[in-house]
Amino acid sequence: MSLLRAIRCVVVAALVPQCSSTGKGPVGIYAIDARYVVIADSNFNALLVVDAKLGGAVGALSWPLDKNGTRVTAASDPQDWVSLTGVASCPTCDFAYVTSNHGAEFWRVSLPEPLAAMAARRDFSRLGNASVAPLTLVINGTNLSDHSGKLRMVRVSADGSAGYVAHLSRGVFAFDPRRTRAAMPMKRILEADGAAWLQFADDERELLATTMAAVLVLRTRNFSAAPRAVRVGSNCNGHHARDAVKAGGLFYVISGPGHGAGCKGLFEVGEKCRLLTARTKSVDWVDGPYSAAHFSRPHAMTRLPGTDLIALTDIDNRAVRLFAFRGPAEGEVTTVPYDDGLWRRLLGGAPVSYTHLRAHETKAN
């Protein structure tokens, strides 16, 4: 089946069994505004715009090149896809940046117009007209693009003047996202092993770089200052960190019992560590309040601007999940549907609600 057919299955939410897929699913995520998010979905080899309010994929950019730099066609082997990882842009940017695990690993996407402008019109049809170019990362005259598969998340400041990318073994690097040349000079701002996830605090005065052991808080106005470390490993009974969002003075951290563990929960980390969702030894897909909610390999997250919601990509469930960190629905986890057909084929249906579970338990008793 053709790649375009696979993308069409997502965009129109067609529930047809012929649609095939491969890859990990939704990985990186970027919030365009309070309603729309962009996810890097390696399962469909595309950037997908998902409506976090009504559900559904409302726009898509099929990735045009494979890891060998060859144009992707209907005959391409999915094993040659680049495995999209991170994605970032800004409200006024006519560009986005994407990381991947294979091939060039760092990409500039030239947009026909900013994603926020498309969101204002609720029309993402032009996203498919964007062009993609691989970039070479250069630090002190040395090529950083070593095809090691170690580039992870990427972030761009709200005004589009500063960009940051995480490298698993070399730390965090700053770059100028306005630069359009094929060689992208980089400056290391943090030397840390295991740096993979990046988030801005709301005012962008802080950049959060998450390693397995801690969330490192860097001051964007003074990167020479030593980062403050929020110790996840020591505060949360040895659990490792995956991604973190700061909201209301607290850190919300995806964490699990060990490296590579498929089951992870959401923790609130301050002076103490509090598990907000189901126990991390559970692998499931359940919506509901606090400990009733289950994930299966949540990977990355972002705060929806101006809301009390955090959006998470849940890889093995092939879903986007929302967590309300305060407000009337505080503690509630819900699912944003964007590919019911894939859920039905791989998992046998949409997520089970907490209410449904309780009703089933009551009936059984």
Mean pLDDT: 83
Cα distance spanning the termini: 47 Å
Strand content: 35-45%
Q: What overall form do the CA principal axes indicate?
A: globular
What class do helices, strands and sheet pairing give? mainly beta
What would you report as the Rg, rounded to the nearest angstrom?
Answer: 19 Å
Pick out the low-confidence regions: 1-22, 354-365
Helix content: 10-25%
Major beta sheet, strand line-up: 25-26-27-28-24-29
Could you tell me the number of beta strands? 29
The number of helices is 5
Biggest sheet features: 6 strands, mixed
Question: Could you explain how this protein is built, in words?
Answer:
The chain has helices at residues 3-11, 115-121, 232-235, 340-347, 354-364; strands spanning 26-31, 36-41, 46-51, 57-62, 84-88, 95-100, 106-110, 131-134, 136-139, 142-143, 151-156, 163-167, 171-175, 183-185, 187-190, 197-200, 206-210, 214-219, 228-231, 240-247, 250-256, 265-269, 273-275, 286-289, 298-303, 309-314, 319-324, 332-336, 352-353. It is mainly β and 365 residues long. It has a six-stranded mixed β-sheet. The protein has a four-stranded antiparallel β-sheet with strand order 1-2-3-4, covered by helices on one side. The chain is globular and about 45 Å long. The chain contains five helices and 29 strands. Mean pLDDT is 83; it is low at 1-22 and 354-365.
